Structures are given as C-alpha cells and as structure tokens.
Amino acid sequence: MKRLTLYLFRHLAVATVFVTAGLTLVIWLTQSLRLLEIVVDGGAPVYLFLQLMVVTLPTFLSIVLPISLLAAVLFTYNRLTMDSELVVMRSAGLGPWGLAKPALILALLVTMMGYGLTLYLAPVAHRELSRLESLARSEFSTVFLREGVFNEAGDGVTVYVRRRMPDGELQGLLIHDTRVPGKPVTINADRGMTVEGEAGTRVVVFDGNRQEVDLATGRMSQLYFDRYAVDLRIFEKQFAERVPDARERSTADLMHAADDPDLLPFRSRLTAELHQRYTSPIFALGFTMMGVAILLVGEFNRRGQSRRIVAAVAGVLVLQSAALGITNLAVNNNAFIPLLYVVAAVPLAVGAFLMIGQRLRGSRGISRFQPTAG
Prior knowledge:
By secondary structure, this protein is an alpha+beta fold. It has ten helices and eight strands. It comes from Skermanella cutis.
C-alpha cells in the first residue's frame, strides 16, 4: 500500500510542479509587458527589470498554487482512470480514502507553503516591488512621459509629449502646471529632455514660450525662451509621503493595527487584508478535497470523467470569484469577513460529505465503485 501511495504522490507532485511552472510563466509574461517599459523606453538597467520580475513571484504564487494543485489532481486521477490503474488499485484493497491520501498529504504541504507566502514572503515582496517601482519612477522618470498622451507628473502637473526619440530627447512638449494656486502656467516647447541631478528631476525645454495667467486679475504674461528648466521634484515628494498599502504591511502590523491611532482611517482595509491572508491558503486543501471526492465517488468510467472535471472546475471558479467579491466587500465593511471563512470551508465540507457518505454506503455493502464500460 505504501508503494501505491508513493506512486500516486510522485505523479501528483510532478504534475503540480509542471502546472505551477506553466501558470507562473504565463503570469510572468503578462507582467513583463508592463515592467519591460522601464528597460526599453526609459533606459533603466536590465538588473532592475530582473529584480522587478523576481519580486512579483510571491505576490501571485499563493493564488496559483491551489489552482495548480487542483489541475494536477484532476489530470492525474483522470489519466489513471482511463488507463484502468485506479481499478487495479481498488482491486488491491485501496478505498476512496486510500486513493485520496497522497493528494491530501500534498495539499497539506501546499497549504503550509501558502501560509508561508501570504503571512511572510508576499508582504515583503509587495514592499520591495513598491520600492523598486518608486525608484524607477524617480531615477528613470522618462519612462512615465509617454508619447501621444497627457501624463500626470504629480499633483498639478500635466505633460504632453508628441514624440520621444531613441536618445531620450522629447519633441513637441506641452506642460501645464497648476501647483501655484490661482496662477496656472502653460509651457510650449519644440524639444526637451529630462535631467537627473541632486536637486531632483527636471525637464529642460528649448525654443518655446511660457504663459502664466493671474486668475484674480485676468492678466496673462508671456515669456519666449531658448532654454528653460521645469522642476518635477513632485515625483520624489509624492513617493516619500506615500502611505504603504495593506498588502505591503507585515502580518504583525495588521494584527496590531488597532493599537495605532494613525491607522484608524485604514483599519477596515487592514483587517480585511489580515483575514484574507488567513483564509486564502485553505483553498489548496479545500479544492483538493473537492476534486478527489468528485472523481473518486461513484462509478468509474474508463472513457474519462469529463463531466465531473467540468463540474469541479466550475465549482472552483464560483468559489474563487465569491472569495474575491467578498474580500472587496469586506474592505469597506468588516461584517462580511465571516463569509471568507464560510467560502473557504465550503469545498472542504462538500468533499468530506461525499467521501464519508461513500464510505458509509460501502460499509453497508452498497458500494458503487464498480468499473463500467462507459
């Protein structure tokens, strides 16, 4: 029996690794499209792009793992059914719980990994990701001056760039500055470039004019220039004063948020984030329990169990969507937090009910685990 258990566990573990790697690669590719702009458009070093890619991994791996494990369970048990291996194992004395044991052991391991990710690694990764993005915005600001659109360069500053050259030169500049109340400034220039210095980020523009309107008197002053510098240090001020997001805070900070009066306006969001970290890893065990129950309870069909697989996938989609929706509701109203635990417990309860019910029927001699020709 131990050999059969190890045999199933090995197949499940290998399938989980491959599915996780595949999903991770897909998500990485979608993320890289956004992060690659820092390297291609802004001239940021490649190492910064690689760092950004690495720190994104823990932020989505806790969501990918339960889904990968379920996919591995459905694939492995369905393949063994079509190859009649499960029929042989049942003939050797393995019941539904014996067949499900390797999957449940692997699910417990994945659940523990999930808690390690959500409680410790993911918050650290989120903080590092925010730090690196802030670094990119402050040191490589040209990334965020995209051509053909109006770029918000901070509170009260809008920059339009008609075209960006490969050497970093900006052509066709329009800058609208409303940082001084009652005196908006509009700058038109033929070309310009960003300059990084100790004083901060500046845009140096050439061959243009500066128009300032005094809204109190309605008078406009105009200045023509050959060279003019526009201060964009608003970037650095904005990132220095940014309030850390709930996902960036450590679990200990979330647990003691009620003791910090400065966090009172964000307490609802922080509490919802804490309970979301507590419940999300449970889905690895719940999805696995539901998956093995759906595939192992009832008659075997050597032609495959596509209907059951579709039912399991549909159930997972509904539960995952419900968890996401309830999390969003709990951010504004913590009264919805208990529903997070309910949703996490539903697949466990459904799977246990089906497995225990089958065991009771089998003990009465009404077992339906006979192979069918399908």
